[in-house]
Write a structure and sequence with these properties.
- The longest helix is centred in the middle third of the chain and has 60 residues.
- Helix 4 packs antiparallel against helix 5, helix 8 runs antiparallel to helix 13 and helix 13 packs across helix 18.
- This protein is an alpha+beta fold.
- Strand 8 and strand 9 form a beta hairpin.
- The strands form 5 sheets. The protein has a 5-stranded antiparallel beta sheet with strand order 4-3-9-8-6, sandwiched between helices. It has a 5-stranded mixed beta sheet with strand order 11-13-14-16-15, with helices on one face. A two-stranded antiparallel ribbon has the order 1-2.
- It has 18 helices and 16 strands.
- The protein is globular.
- About 3% of the residues have low confidence.
């Protein structure tokens, strides 16, 4: 038994080596890091794992007609990592192959059936796995498949062969087979998961780079300066040769790496660009698979291009961001997720550059003062929070970016409007989600508002500054944090909206001086004055035994 164990563990090294070197190929790495597999991927993965299983059979060790092997490693890994289609297919192929290898062996039928069943066993665990526990389920799968094989050897031995021989075979190969296959499955899964982890780390680095680009670009958007400088920042950060920003008809900004490259025209002629403008989906093009007109506007050695949509309010397509590279399509495609994030940020920043168009009325001067307090500090804190998550939790970083985009876009699109209550609440939720990312469970928000009041209109940035005030000056000053509750009820021709928290409570001085000039709580004062301007009544503020209650009237 010890000799068999030593030899099969040695053979296990061959399987691990094949899996390791296979994952070093770029095409293999690209397949394993996909979230969804197409038909071609499934075929290629089925071939690979079937090949891995068949190698396990051929490198097996003979013991009284039985083959002590590592065949089921490929079957179990296929089901656990890729899913039922590849797992079951691999099991059927490897099991069928086993039937034709030493067909007269006392274990042939049992091992073939166990291998085929192994595809179903590992596929069953597929939906239960994640990146942290997949190797554990892999070990369990390998263990169960080999135990099934041993049981079938005993059954077939009893009915078809010599039962004494079957008992001897199981007695001597049980531990080597269990050890080699269960451990082997876990090791191969860890190798594959390492590739996926590398991609997630790269995604985190790209998210951080996108934030750095955003920080550098934001001043140009806010001051309404030339977008050519923004193109230059993107070009240097992404190591592109040419960066172009278009509207729906023409090039409106560009930057070229050197005199080697020239723009031949400013009108959009590219069929690919027109397609992106039409469907809003980004494209990665190589010169080899693109119409020549897609690269005709640039003179120079351009080999690939990424084209991304830029949106404006209500997801209308404003234009495109085009990045040209002197590297192949495969190399350029590695930057597509970073570029996609940049296009979203540029969409938001273009909205920021339009903010001056929303300052025509006197009450917007007060709104500007309110936003001047919110945007720089809040944006800095949000970007800092995102930066802290890009390495440890890229998915969370992307969620915060989406919330930040929602928050900024809402502020800019609706700065001169009365908006439905449900839209204001969506913006409040985006703001609270970002703050919860910073402070965790210290902050909670509940809403108790009847559906019939959700369409009632109120000034933009009415509830959010009050919620922000509750968080900063009430909830966060308590060690254990607290809850904010937003409620509303119908009142005459309108409704009363209430924001109540269980924080430390507002200072009486602020309540007394709400109609006077105050140097702090400017957000509270601006909301109060805008409500008075529109509806004749401002905020009603009460300090509670525990916390603060702020209410105001909205006329329908």
């Amino acid at each position: 038994m010890f000799e068999l164990t030593s030899r099969i563990l040695n053979n296990l090294g061959y399987i691990i080596a094949v899996a390791f070197f296979f994952t070093k190929f770029k095409s293999a790495r690209n397949i394993f890091t996909k979230k969804e597999y197409d038909r071609k991927d499934i075929v290629l993965l089925s071939i690979f794992f079937s090949f891995l299983s068949i190698i396990g059979t051929y490198t097996g060790i003979d013991y009284r007609g039985a083959i002590v092997n590592t065949r089921n490693i490929g079957v179990a890994v296929a089901g656990i990592v890729v899913g039922p289609q590849v797992g079951i297919t691999t099991g059927i192929i490897a099991g069928t192959h086993r039937l034709f290898v030493e067909p007269g062996s006392p274990t042939t039928l049992a091992c073939a059936i166990a291998t085929m069943a192994g595809g179903f066993i590992s596929s069953y665990f597929y939906k239960k796995t994640n990146e942290k526990n997949s190797y554990i389920y892999g070990f369990i799968s390998g263990f169960l498949i080999e135990n099934l094989s041993m049981v079938l050897i005993l059954i077939t031995g009893y009915f078809l062969y010599d039962f004494d021989i079957a008992i001897d075979i199981v007695k001597n190969i049980y531990i080597p087979m269990i050890l080699a296959n269960a451990l082997g499955v876990s090791i191969v899964i860890l190798i594959i998961r390492d590739i996926i982890s590398e991609k997630e780390i790269m995604a985190g680095k790209q998210a951080k780079l996108a934030l750095e680009i955003a920080n550098k670009s934001l001043p140009y958007f806010r001051r309404g300066e030339s977008l050519n400088e923004v193109c230059k920042i993107i070009l240097n950060s992404l190591e592109a040769q040419v960066v172009v920003i278009t509207n729906d008809k023409n090039i409106i900004a560009s930057y070229l790496d050197s005199d080697k490259y020239t723009l031949n025209h400013t009108e959009i002629k590219s069929t690919a660009t027109k397609e992106v403008l039409k469907n809003g989906k980004f494209m990665v093009l190589g010169k080899e698979d693109s119409e020549i007109i897609d690269f005709q506007c640039i003179d120079g050695d351009i080999k690939s291009c990424i084209i991304l949509p830029i949106f404006q309010e209500e997801r209308k397509i404003y234009g495109t961001l085009k990045l040209y590279f002197d590297t192949s399509k495969i190399v350029a495609s590695r930057k597509k997720y970073l570029a996609e994030g940049l296009s979203m940020l540029i969409s938001t920043f273009i909205e920021i550059s339009r903010v001056e168009n929303f300052k025509s009325m006197a009450r917007e001067a007060e709104l500007k003062a309110l936003q001047a307090q919110i945007n720089p500090h809040f944006l800095f804190n949000a970007l800092h929070t995102i930066s802290s998550f890009v390495r440890i939790n890229p998915d969370k970083a992307r969620e915060i970016i989406m919330d930040l985009s929602t928050y900024l876009r809402y502020n800019l699109e609706n700065s001169a409007k009365l908006v439905p209550l449900h839209m204001e609440l969506n913006q409040v939720n985006a703001y609270v989600n970002i703050e919860k990312a910073r402070f965790g469970d210290k902050i909670s928000l509940t809403c108790n508002i009847p559906n019939e009041l959700m369409d009632i209109k109120l000034p933009n940035l009415t509830i959010q500054p009050l919620v922000e005030n509750s968080i900063k000056h009430g909830i966060l000053k308590k060690r254990e944090g607290g809850n904010i509750n937003i409620s509303a009820y119908r009142e005459k021709n309108g409704c009363i909206i209430i924001i109540e928290d269980n924080g430390v409570g507002i200072e009486h001085e602020i309540i007394r001086n709400i109609d006077s000039t105050i140097s702090k709580n400017i957000g509270l004062k601006n909301v109060h004055n805008r409500l008075k301007l529109l509806f004749g009544k401002g905020l009603v503020i009460q300090r509670l035994k525990e916390g603060t209650k702020i209410s105001f009237y909205i006329e329908k």
